[in-house]
Every structure is written in C-alpha cells, then in structure tokens.
Amino acid sequence: MSVKIQSVAKALPPYTRPTGEIMPYLDLWLAGQDERFIRKVKKIFENAAVDQRYSIMNAEEVFRTTSFEDKNNLYIREGTELGKRCLQGALEKAGLQGGDIDFIITVSCTGFMIPSMDAYLINALQLRQDIVRLPVTEMGCAAGVSGMIYAYQFLKANPGKRAAVIAVESPTATFQHQDFSMANIVSAAIFGDGAACVILSSHEEDPGPVILGTEMYHFYEATHLMGFHLSNNGLQMVLDIAVPEQIASHFGDIIYPFLERHGTSIEEVNQLIFHPGGRKIIQTVEELFSGSGKNIDDTKEVLRLYGNMSSATVLYVLERILDRGVPAGDKGLMLSFGPGFSAQRILLQW
C-alpha cells in the first residue's frame, strides 16, 4: 500500500506590493532613528531576494499600530477564507468533493484560534461529520512538511483514505511596531502571507508521486535559534543569525543518511523541493550542493515572487514542480527547517 500526493493548490491574500513600494512606509516607521540605521534597514529589504509579497492587510494597516487582538481577529477572518479557498482549489485539482476527505490537518504559527481553523473549514465545505481533525501549531516554517508527515503516517495505517493538509500563515500580522531589533527587521523583509493545501491519498487507484519515506531531525540545544516570544503586543520574532551556520554544520547528517536508509542517494534525486527560508539560507544550501549539479531554482523563485510564508512556502515549491510535470521515475526530496530547531524530510518518486 502506497501513499501519494494527489494535488496541491495555493491561495493568496488580496493585497500585494513590490518591495520598492514598501520603502516609503519604512521611512515613516523609522522616523527619528539614526540615519545609518535607516540605510542598513533599507539595504536589508533591498537584498532580501524578495521582489514582492502578499498580505491579508494593506501596507497602511501593516505599519499602523494596532492591538494584538485586532491583528489576531484579522488573522482569524482572512486566514479562514484563505484556508477555504486553497482547500477548494486542491479538491478541484484532484476531482474530489469535500466528503472524500477522511483526515484534515491545519498548520499555522502566526495567530491563535480556538476552535482551530479545521472546525470552520468543516462547516464551510460541509466536510464529513466523522472526519479526523489535527490542528498543528508552534512548528513554524517546518509545519508544512510536518503536516504531510503526520498525514502520511495516518494514511499508511489506513488504506483507502485521503488527507488534506492546509497551511495558512500571516507573518505580517505579527509585525512589531515598537521593535527595532534585527530579528523583527529581517522578518519583515523576507516574510509574506499565504496559504496552500496538499491532498494525500492511500487509494491505490489515485494518481500522484509516491512518498517513499519521511523523517524528522532534531538539533540538540537549539531551541533559541528560531520561534516567537509571546509579548503583550503579540508574537515577537526570535531569529538567531547562526541559523544558516547551524544548517550547514548538520546538512550532511540531515540529507545523506536519510537517503541511504531509503536505498537512494543525492545523485538519484532530480527534484529538490526546499523551503525558501531566506536569501542566506538559500545561499548556504546552494553552496552545499555546488558540486552535485543540483539546483533549487524553484525555491528561489517562490521566495522572489511571494516571500517566506512560513509553513505554506514549501508547498508553493511543490505546486510549481507538480504543475510543470515531472518524468516518471524521477525522485524528489522535500526539506524544511523550523523552531526546535528541526529539519523535516520527505522522499518522493514519480
């Protein structure tokens, strides 16, 4: 019995601006700061390798001081709509109805909802009343792949079932107006909002690339590298400058033994489906693969077009590759990093 990826669909929020049009808002936000500091911040935005990004709110709202409650309410309202749209899109691509889904996983780290988003999606799309729910929070950028791993484990144990993994994120709703730290600035420069849904199936007749294996890799003593601090003003970004260095130092242990355990090697992997964490992480990964003839062009293009949308971003890379078409027999490697610190991996074959 195999588990396959049946479809992937994204949903984008209504507001978008190229990075160049955000600069005037930076001038307003940084008013009164040292001129050298202002130039440094603008340089970070200009060099982030993000040409545009999308948001659940317009730029004026992003840079306007509002309460944590107001931003979270916006996250709930707009995020639920994005979740509904991407789930509908994935169902349509797969030729399915809402009642064909047996397991629903929602992943997000940029806001709070109780009941979780899956409850609202069950109502909106009239999903099955006996559907199994799993909301996943607090796993950050890794959660898109994490959700797929949980779905794979469920489907592997339950033949003839389908699962929907919905990733919805609004990092712009976490922007801290009184925080001029590098973590908040870098976060604002690279992150954008978005959502994506992937449908997985253990129906033998369903098409799609087969999942050959999944694993997680956890870094010891690295909880300080990435995450959020819950302050009175909301979710405050924690982002250590050592993240690319830590990834580089563990990269061999993350990639090669995993592939070997599943009877393959990096030379046999044709499709690299990597989470675009940011320009420095992409550069680090490219350097590590420099001698293998591999590229992560799709990862770079997703970052350029949309920014880092936390857990949803790797699913945008996956959608690009699936929609383009992949030759039968090709193998693919999905990889994302997130708070913990951890790396999540999935091996695919078309």
Tally of separate helices? 11
By secondary-structure content and strand pairing, the structural class works out as alpha/beta
First CA to last CA: what distance?
16 Å
**Helical content, roughly?**
25-40%
Order of H and E elements: EEHHEHHEHEHEHEEEEHEHHHEE
Largest sheet: 5 strands, mixed
Shape: globular
Strand order of the largest sheet: 1-7-6-4-5
Over all CA atoms, what is the radius of gyration?
A: 20 Å
Unreliable runs: none
- The pLDDT mean sits at 91
Strand content: 15-25%
DSSP strand tally: 13
3D architecture notes:
This protein has 350 residues and is α/β, with parallel strands linked by helices. The protein has 11 helices and 13 strands. The protein has a 5-stranded mixed sheet with strand order 1-7-6-4-5, sandwiched between helices. A 4-stranded mixed sheet has the order 8-13-12-11, sandwiched between helices. A two-stranded antiparallel sheet has the order 2-3. α10 (297-306) crosses α11. It is globular and about 65 Å long.
What is the compact description of this entry?
Residues 225-348 form the Chalcone/stilbene synthase C-terminal domain. It comes from Chitinophaga qingshengii. The chain has 350 residues and is of the alpha/beta class.
Features:
350 residues, alpha/beta
Secondary-structure blueprint:
Elements: E1 4-11, E2 15-18, H1 23-29, H2 35-46, E3 52-55, H3 59-62, H4 68-94, E4 103-108, H5 117-125, E5 132-137, H6 143-156, E6 162-169, H7 182-190, E7 194-201, E8 210-218, E9 226-231, E10 234-239, H8 243-261, E11 269-274, H9 279-288, H10 297-306, H11 313-324, E12 331-338, E13 342-349
Parallel strand pairs: 4-5, 4-6, 11-12
Antiparallel strand pairs: 1-7, 2-3, 6-7, 8-13, 9-10, 12-13
Helix pairs in contact: 2-7, 4-5, 8-9, 10-11
